[in-house]
Amino acid sequence: MRHRIVSELMTKDVVNVRRDASFTEIAKLLAEHGITAVPVVDDADRPLGVVSEADLLRREAHRLEATGPPTVPHPESAPYTKAEATTAEGLMTSPAVVARPEWTVVEAARTMERNRVKRLPVVDGSGRLTGVISRADLLRVFLRGDRAIREEITGDVLMRTLGIPPDAVTVHVVEGQVTLRGTVERSSVIPVALRLCRSVDGVVDVSAHLDFKVADSADPATATDAPRRAQLSP
Question: Do residues 153 and 171 make contact, with C-beta atoms less than 8 angstroms apart?
Fold first, then answer.
């Protein structure tokens, strides 16, 4: 069982600009390639920052404000500086928050959330740009086929990790919704199975309708050899 990694999902043919690229040049690149941001790189192709549509629109918004009441921020503030910028170096958001090719989708998603960004330049061991991973790329894990999800849960989660034979628990998957039915030896296995199934890439939700032979709770008095039923869902 493993999470998909950034190198499997990232865009490898990356449109990028140098620090001296003009406002107009960047705007044309975004339009021509149907993208919303470009990494800014140095002469060694190391990311310095990212210029997004929002960075370009900030300048235009500032120009419109100039015709209205004077609400110009302090000249040393970041918004003012970006609003006055005409090249990538001044427009970009920096430093660049980057990802590594070997990161899992979970690591990439957490980094995006923590830094409130929609995409990450991907760099190799020397810091050179090798790709870009976006939120849309991460969402592709949920486009995995139901058969692939079912095979991973049956083989990796239930059999190899938990030691549950395939004839003991059936796995039904419909559009990422997983349902487990069958019998396990001990009740304590059920929450573990649910947690592991939810961690499989492409799984949207998991529910369990499982019998268990032994209730191995903390209270020995509750243990029994009679089959019992647990119905669990988030």
Answer: yes
pLDDT at 1: 60
pTM above 0.70, yes or no: no
C-alpha–C-alpha distance, residues 17 and 37, integer Å: 10
Contact at 8 Å (CB) between 130 and 123?
yes
Nearest Cα to Cα of residue 215 among 201, 230, 205, 202: 230
| CATH T-level fold of 6-142 | CBS-domain (3.10.580)
C-alpha–C-alpha distance, residues 126 and 120, integer Å: 16
Three-class secondary structure of residue 76 per DSSP: coil
150-201 pLDDT, tens digit per residue, is: 999 999 999 999 999 989 999 999 999 999 999 999 999 999 999 999 999 9
56 CB-near residues (< 8 Å, 6+ apart)? 23, 26, 27, 30, 91
Q: Is the peptide bond before 220 cis (omega within 30 degrees of 0)?
A: no
Hey, where are the domains in the chain? 6-142, 144-232
Is the pLDDT at 85 greater than 90? The verdict is no
